[in-house]
Amino acid sequence: MAEVLAASGVIAHHSKAFWRALFREGDLDLSAGKFLPPLQRWIDQAVGEGKPYFLDAPEVVDEIRSADGRTRKFLLRLRDGQTIETVLMGYDGRHTVCVSTQAGCAMGCVFCATGQMGFVRHLRVGEIVAQVLHARRVLHQTHPTKRLRNLVLMGMGEPLHNIDAVLHALDIISDVRGIGIGPSKISISTVGVVPGILRLAEEQQPYRLAVSLHGSTEEERAALVPVSQRWPLAMLIDACRQYGALTGKRILFEWTLIAGKNDSPETAARLARLLAGIDAHINLIPLNPTGGFAGTASHAGHAFQRILLAAGFPCTFRQRRGIDVAAGCGMLKADKRPRAAG
Ligand code: SAH
Ligand code: SF4
Fold first, then answer.
1. Helix (H) or strand (E) holding 168
2. Which of 41, 60, 58 is nearest to 49 (CA)?
3. How far does the centroid of ligand 2 lie from the alpha carbon of residue 298, in Å?
4. How do residues 189-225 score in pLDDT, each as one tens digit?
5. CA Rg, the chain, in Å?
6. From CA 251, how far away is CA 89, in angstroms rounded?
7. How far is the CA of 189 from the centre of ligand 2 (A)?
8. Element at 179 (helix H, strand E)
9. Single pTM value for the model
10. Do the Cβ atoms of 315 and 282 come closer than 8 Å?
């Protein structure tokens, strides 16, 4: 963004003021004429042209809190009327924001409310950043001394299907002169978009990678994640090995446990063999009910976990948040009537 400003003839002093107002103070009201005239002229022009990095203050359409008050889920309306979800979670004093990267999703995972809605559009850089600013503002209202330190790209959409905007937004979000969330506290979760994973590795992007696996054979996975026909499991695992070799980083593998589909002891043993040699942490996710699928019973989930632990993998359960208010991933929006793209 600093380069964009410089290329437009905005002098460094003014661009610093702009950056500070936007990202340190989170002031999204750019039309108020509070900047010096050369900067204000540039802002007015860029806003008028709808530049993709522009921040719109999203309108909060709905907000749900979990019973324990530690999860807050926002349904935000964008300028063109599309709605997306952002979640603020507080675990043991650590605050994490979960943002959306697309309106809808093209990947069609059968158990995912967002996937079942289909793809509407990519979010712009400014729309991704604005979600973090909104969560930070809410956090400061309730906990004035707390910092927002963690970010996960696990909301609506597939981040690596919108990779250019995502990387640009993360550049802004991790910049220490502004929001300043450390790159090692930012996780990109992908359903397995192989070219995107390889790009992250080749560019040595400093963020953490999470891969949603859900299946230990081509058939098991394809039944849940249709896009694995395009990037088969074997190709995905190969890309993960390359990622590990090039970056030296651990990969988090996400596994949503679905009764009768991917939760047998045989599947757990096969998963351990599939990931052999990869520096992997496996995160088991209890299913949020979204349709014709049932979650794995607790004892079966723990048996699954024990097999992976015995094989030497760190393996944890994702804490279940927001489910008491029917606000798991994609579920808040699914309650509202989708709007047409505008
Ligand atoms: N598109 C990316 C990131 C968003 S989805 C991805 O798929 O990784 C974030 C996580 O939520 C994924 O691991 C996904 O498998 C999981 N998820 C989706 N629907 C779910 C549901 N109904 N219950 C539990 N987890 C779900
Ligand atoms: Fe898209 Fe992720 Fe949902 Fe699959 S799980 S449909 S990739 S948002």
1. helix 163-174
2. 41
3. 24
4. 999 999 999 999 999 999 999 999 999 999 999 999 9
5. 21
6. 22
7. 10
8. none
9. 0.91
10. yes
